Amino acid sequence: MNILLLLVPISLVLLGIAIASFVWAVRRGQFDDLDTPAIDILREDPLPSPVRDPASESTEVDQHAD
């Protein structure tokens, strides 16, 4: 029974921290837009730019050096 004298205040402190964290998140706007992140996963990624071949670029530099 003596352990309850320790566990009850600890649980109340943790509950207070959780409530304070939730209030902080709401005030900072963390829960303003809940729909957009779910839709973002459905959008297609832009096409990657073509990869340039470094070997062909080095030959152009060598030709200009002469």
What is this entry, summarized?
By secondary structure, the protein is mainly α. The protein has 3 helices and no strands.
Structural features, described:
There is one protein chain. This protein has 66 residues and is mainly alpha-helical. Helix content is 62%, strand content 0%. The protein contains 3 helices and no strands. It has helices at 4-27, 36-40, 54-65. The radius of gyration is 29 Å and the shape is elongated. The chain starts with a helix and ends with a helix. The model has no long low-confidence stretch (mean pLDDT 82).
Secondary-structure map:
Elements: H1 4-27, H2 36-40, H3 54-65
Mean of all residue-level pLDDT scores: 82
| Helical residues, percent | 55-70%
- Describe the main β-sheet briefly: none
Cα Rg:
29 Å
